[in-house]
Design goal:
The protein has 155 residues and is of the alpha+beta class. Helix content is 18%, strand content 32%.
Length: 155
């Protein structure tokens, strides 16, 4: 006898507290079920910005597998990628250049964003900070992949 499929509630994303009817953690204004959840569950992100938003959501919910799968293998460092104790507070997308659904393999895109977070200050307290980055993405085998990011001064 084969094993029964795990129920939807067994998803690592759902177990981290993001439910399909919740607003998506990426801040798009859409429900999680129609925004980042399908991408975290393995569907290809339609655009580079959608992939960037899904990667932010993966950091929010601690989905290491999604971060690994969507990082270009030539630039991907060894994990873990999520840091316990970091609480992500919000995402603002500033600009997107390229990265359309119709892009051909080999095309690149840039997405500039700021992600706010709260982390340990190393002295028993916490500090609120932000990451301002211009990320590079490439289309490979019909899927967008994160290549790398240039850290920019926080706006």
């Amino acid at each position: 006898q084969g094993r029964a499929a795990a129920p939807p509630s067994a998803s690592p994303v759902r177990s981290a507290g993001a439910r399909p009817t919740d607003p998506c953690p990426c801040g798009s204004g859409h429900r999680f079920a129609v925004c980042c959840e399908p991408v975290l569950d393995g569907e290809a992100a339609p655009t580079a910005q959608a992939l960037m938003r899904s990667r932010y959501t993966a950091f929010v919910v601690g989905d290491e597998d999604h971060l690994f799968r969507t990082w270009h293998p030539r630039t991907r460092p060894p994990g873990p990628y999520c840091h316990p104790g970091t609480r992500w507070l919000g995402l603002t997308v500033h600009t997107t250049v390229g990265g359309e659904e119709q892009a051909e393999d080999g095309q690149t895109a840039l997405v500039e964003f700021t992600a706010r977070y709260e982390a340990s200050d190393g002295r028993g307290g916490t500090v609120v900070d932000a990451l301002h980055e211009r990320s590079t993405f490439v289309r490979r085998a019909g899927r967008w992949l994160y290549v790398d990011g240039e850290h920019l001064p926080v706006r």
